[in-house]
TrEMBL record:
Domain called HTH lysR-type: residue spans: 1-58
Family stated for the protein in its record: Belongs to the LysR transcriptional regulatory family.
Pfam families, alphabetized: HTH_1, LysR_substrate
Record-given protein name: LysR family transcriptional regulator
Domain of life: Bacteria
GO terms assigned for molecular function: DNA binding; DNA-binding transcription factor activity
Keyword DNA-binding set for record: yes
InterPro entries documented for this protein: LysR_HTH_N, LysR_subst-bd, WH-like_DNA-bd_sf, WH_DNA-bd_sf
Keyword entries, A-Z: DNA-binding, Transcription, Transcription regulation
Lineage of producing organism: Bacteria, Pseudomonadati, Pseudomonadota, Gammaproteobacteria, Enterobacterales
Coiled coil: none
Recorded GO CC terms: protein-DNA complex
Species this protein is from: Acerihabitans arboris
Length: 290
C-alpha cells in the first residue's frame, strides 16, 4: 500500500479541512480528494463525510486512523534510517582485531561513536587468519590485522608491532641489566606459549624469530588465551614471547624486554574488502585517515 495515501488520510483527519490538508501535503485539493478516494476504494470503506464542519471521520475511519498513523510514522522512521545507512551515519559496524590493536581500536570506536551515536559497533578478538576469512565472506566490515594481504582485500599500514620477552619481575636479573633479552639466558628458561590455533600468524612469527636465532625453547605450558599466558608468566611458571601490545593487559609484576633483529617486528594494517560497498565502513575509515 502506498504510504502517501495513508499520510493523506492522517493529515486530513487531523485538519478536518481539505484545503489545509492539501497545503500541508504540498498538493492540490483535487489531488488530495483523488488520494482519499483511491484509499477508500482499496480498503473498501468510506473514511470521511463532508459536512458544514469540514471532513469528518466515519466510524470505520475512526477505527483505522490509529493504525494508519502508526504505519506512517514507521515509514518515516524507515526512510530516516535508510538515509542514515546510505550516508554511513547509522547501522551496524563489525570490526575484527587482534592483540596488537587491543588498545587503539576501542579508542577509535569511542571517538567514532561520539560523532555517530546511532551506530552499533561490535568488536571481535580474532586471529588474522579468522579476520581474513570473515572479510571475504562479509561477516566483518573492517579488520586490524597482520600485513600484507592479497586482493580482493585492501588496506593500509596502521601501526608497527614488535616482539618482546615477558618475564616475571626480578625473576631474571641478569637479563634485566641492559634491558635486552640475552639469548643464552632465553635458552635456559622454561617457556609458556600460545597454541598455534589461537594466532597462527603470531605463532609463526615467534617460530621464525626463534629459528633465526637458533633457540629451541623448553615449553612447559600452553594456552589459547593471552590473558592466561600473562597470568602464567606473572606466577613464575615461565617466560613468553608476546607482542609488545600485550603490555596493555599484562599484570604489574611482569616486565617486557624488547627483542631485536630479523623477525622481531611486523606491520599491522587496517583492512577491508572493497568489493563489498559499505558507506558506514568508509565513514569510519575516513575518520581514521584524518
Amino acid at each position: 500500500m502506498d504510504t502517501r495515501l495513508l499520510r493523506a488520510f492522517v493529515v486530513l483527519a487531523e485538519t478536518k479541512n481539505y484545503r489545509e490538508a492539501a497545503q500541508r501535503l504540498f498538493i492540490t485539493q483535487p489531488a488530495l480528494s483523488k488520494q482519499i478516494k483511491t484509499l477508500e476504494h482499496e480498503l473498501g470503506v468510506t473514511l470521511f463525510v463532508r459536512g458544514r464542519h469540514g471532513a469528518l471521520l466515519t466510524r470505520p475511519g475512526e477505527l483505522l486512523l490509529g493504525r494508519a498513523d502508526e504505519l506512517v510514522r514507521r515509514a518515516g522512521a524507515f526512510r530516516d534510517y535508510a538515509r542514515g545507512v546510505s550516508k554511513g551515519t547509522t547501522g551496524n559496524l563489525s570490526i575484527g582485531f587482534g592483540i596488537s590493536a587491543i588498545k587503539v581500536v576501542p579508542e577509535l570506536v569511542a571517538r567514532f561513536r561520539c560523532s555517530f551515536p546511532d551506530v552499533i559497533v561490535s568488536l571481535e578478538d580474532l586471529s588474522s587468519e579468522q579476520q581474513h576469512a570473515r572479510l571475504l565472506s562479509g561477516q566483518l566490515q573492517l579488520a586490524f590485522m597482520r600485513l600484507p594481504v592479497e586482493p580482493p582485500l585492501a588496506g593500509r599500514k596502521f601501526m608497527a608491532e614488535s616482539l618482546v620477552l615477558a618475564v616475571k619481575k626480578n625473576a631474571c636479573p641478569a637479563m634485566a641489566r641492559d634491558g635486552r633479552a640475552n639469548k643464552r639466558r632465553l635458552l635456559a628458561q622454561p617457556w609458556v606459549q600460545l597454541l598455534p590455533d589461537k594466532g597462527p600468524g603470531l605463532f609463526q612469527q615467534i617460530e621464525n624469530y626463534l629459528g633465526y636465532n637458533h633457540i629451541i625453547p623448553e615449553v612447559v605450558q600452553q594456552t589459547r588465551d593471552m590473558q592466561t599466558l600473562m597470568a602464567l608468566v606473572a606466577a613464575g611458571v615461565g617466560v613468553a614471547i608476546v607482542p609488545e601490545s600485550a603490555t596493555h593487559i599484562a599484570p604489574k609484576n611482569i616486565e617486557m624486554m624488547p627483542l631485536e633483529g630479523p623477525y622481531a617486528s611486523w606491520d599491522v594494517g587496517m583492512i577491508w574488502n572493497p568489493a563489498l560497498a559499505d558507506p558506514l565502513r568508509d565513514v569510519f575509515i575516513g575518520m581514521v585517515n584524518v
